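User: Can you predict the 3D structure of Phosphoribosylpyrophosphate synthetase? Sequence below.
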Amino acid sequence: MEIQYHYATVSKAIEELRQKGYNEDFNLDNNYLVCHSGRFGHEEFVITDIYFYEGETDPGDEATVYGILSASGHKGVLVTGDEADLDPMSGAIIDKLLVHRNNR
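Assistant: Sure. Here are the predicted C-alpha cells for Phosphoribosylpyrophosphate synthetase:
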C-alpha cells in the first residue's frame, strides 16, 4: 500500500480515518500494537496513512496519527505524541513508525 501523508488537526485526522473504516484503537504495549481484536508485532501490520500535526506555538506539542491495517484485516488508529515520549520498550514497532513518519 502506498503511504499517504495528510496534514490536519488530530481530531480531523481521526475522523477521516474512522470514515474509512479504521475503527480499532491501537496502543503500544512492549513490542506490540494492541487493540480489542488482538496484538500485532511489527511484521503483522502495515501503515496506510499518516497524519502529522505540529502545534503552532510549541514545536514540542506534536502528534502523529497512523492508519494501521493488520495482516488479519483489522483497521485502526494509533496516535503518538512527541517521538521523545515514545516507549523505548516498543523498539521494532517504534522504528517502523518513525521511518514512515520521518519520510514524509
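The chain has one domain: 4-102. The beta strands are 4-6, 24-25, 27-29, 32-35, 38-40, 45-54, 62-70, 75-80.
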